[in-house]
Amino acid sequence: MTTRMTRAEQTERNRELVLAAARRVFLARGYAGARLDVIAEEAGFSKGVVYSQFAGKAELFLALLEQRIAERAAENEDLAAGQAGLEGLRALLLANARRSEEGGGWTQLVIEFRVAAARDAELNARYAALHVRALEEFGAAVATVLERGGLVPSHPPRTLAELIFCLDAGRELERAAGTARLELDVVVDLVSRFVEPL
């Protein structure tokens, strides 16, 4: 016997299908090149179904970004649980770099969105709120592994996280241009200079 989904379950299922399709389309076409009608077709819906879930392309992207931040925070928390000190910091940095390199262009997509959002004060504020959450969560993971190893960052953990994110975005742009020479070991060495004993 087949159980029918409730309206709320159907709505949530449709939302997840639209988000999955949007992720594929954004990664294939970039933020500027992605269109809602293409996302709807990829999800197997009409544009009306997409609009019933999201107010527009920016809203859809922000929902994807929020989902990605939550996933990465959970991954970092799990990783940090078994790590300590500089080796723990190195593990977090390696995981962060690996996610960027294996993310199918996600980091470039976020950079593209950030540039577009910077030209719209309201959109930029919404993006910034999510970005601050990502910085704070990553900073907390870094602080946890350092403290467990008897170390503390010489600057607030959120500042250290911002430095790491800046280096990651810069490395991604260099990689996209084919000019990347900044090895991860250099990044680890640089970041570890901002750490001192408790």
Automatic annotation (TrEMBL):
The organism's place on the tree of life at top rank: Bacteria
Entry keyword set: DNA-binding, Transcription, Transcription regulation
DNA-binding interval(s): 35-54
Domain HTH tetR-type: 12-72
InterPro entries referenced in this protein's UniProt entry, alphabetically: Homeodomain-like_sf, HTH-type_TetR-like_transc_reg, HTH_TetR, Tet_transcr_reg_TetR-rel_C_sf
Protein's name in the database: Helix-turn-helix domain containing protein
Native source organism of the sequence: Actinomycetospora lemnae
